[in-house]
Design a protein that fits this description.
This protein has 285 residues and is an alpha+beta fold. The chain has one domain: Sandwich (Jelly Rolls), CATH 2.60.120. Helices cover 25% and strands 18% of the residues. It has seven helices and ten strands. Strands 1, 2, 3, 4, 7, 9 and 10 form a seven-stranded antiparallel β-sheet that branches. The longest helix is centred in the middle third of the chain and has 19 residues, at 92-110. The radius of gyration is 18 Å and the shape is globular. Bound molecules: 2-oxoglutaric acid and fe (ii) ion. 2-oxoglutaric acid is lined by residues 85, 124, 133, 139, 147, 162, 219, 224-227.
């Protein structure tokens, strides 16, 4: 019984998640204040503009994943999967060379050491319209986070691409939606019928590209959707980073018992959490 209470206090977001930009910022600074402080992040060559909340850049070495991806058995459906978005974890040693290239950018943007929450291959058949993340929403894990999308085969307009509204536009839309009583939280899914009243079609950004492209997107600050009905399927590699002060992280009791990753980045799997969620990659980078 006390074990359960202790876990809840460690992960307060399990009973209350402050899912507004202000609420998320307050939580972030609180968690930062009570957890250990770390050296500032390394300077990055590619930076994500704060006002836009996303950038599309290039990356080396994605082809090293080909053999792994070809070997994936997509038949088995695990309970965490959505029918319109099939997900398979990739072992960390197979993706370290990709994480290495992305890390300085993510770290500079988030403003703390990032945690790699997942490294996965995503396959979207784009044959079903179910809802969920196929509708406009923002994510609720943190004040800022970065999701990286790396095409494993060409993604174009007809592959159900990930689409976003830049952070400045999303902020304007969020305030207007809240003012008009449509939503209270960032993560609420919104129909196109309502959403399209609040932005101009020219403001929507479609994330397309060849293998070798990487889109880094703050999904907590940019409205987005993906895997919608389309004539082609979509295959990509996905890396998800949040801050060390994310609501997904324990407030205390972290286990710093694993090797140091890179010069300024500490890595530790938060084992109990990782085991519980079956996310094997949760490391502080
Ligand atoms: O299927 C997609 O591209 C959307 C996924 C999504 O909402 C997310 O990664 O947060
Ligand atoms: Fe999302």
């Amino acid at each position: 019984m006390f074990g359960g209470l202790r876990t809840k206090l460690k992960y307060p977001n399990r009973f209350y998640r402050p899912d507004t930009p202000v609420g998320a910022a307050i939580y972030y600074h609180f968690a930062k204040f009570i957890t250990e402080r770390r050296p500032p992040p390394l300077p990055a060559q590619v930076s994500i503009p704060k006002n836009k909340g996303y950038i599309v850049s290039s990356i080396q070495g994605i082809e090293t994943l080909s053999a792994h991806v070809e070997g994936i058995d997509w038949k088995y459906n695990n309970p965490y999967e959505k029918p319109f978005l099939r997900i398979r974890d990739v072992p960390f040693d197979k993706i370290k060379h990709l994480a290495d290239q992305i890390l300085p950018t993510v770290s500079a943007y988030i403003g703390s050491l990032p945690v790699l929450a997942v490294a996965q291959v995503w396959k979207s058949p784009n044959t079903e319209d179910i809802g969920g993340s196929q509708r406009f929403h923002m994510d609720g894990e943190d004040r800022r986070q970065v999701k990286c999308f790396l095409p494993l085969k060409t993604i174009d307009h007809d592959s159900g691409p990930f689409c976003l509204l830049p952070a400045d536009i999303s902020s304007r839309v969020f305030k207007a939606l809240r003012r008009d009583g449509h939503i209270k939280r960032r993560n609420t899914k919104i129909s196109d019928e309502i959403m399209t009243r609040y932005f101009d079609p020219s403001e929507l950004v479609e994330i397309t590209g060849e293998p070798g492209t990487v889109a880094m997107v703050d999904t907590c600050r940019c409205y987005h959707f993906g895997s919608r009905l389309a004539s082609k399927s979509r295959l990509l590699f996905h890396l998800h980073f949040f801050s060390a002060y994310s609501m997904e992280m324990p407030l205390w009791g972290r286990m710093f018992d694993d090797p140091v990753y890179g010069a300024a980045h500490l890595m530790f799997p938060v084992r109990r959490r990782a085991e519980r969620s079956r996310r094997l990659h949760q490391k502080i980078l």
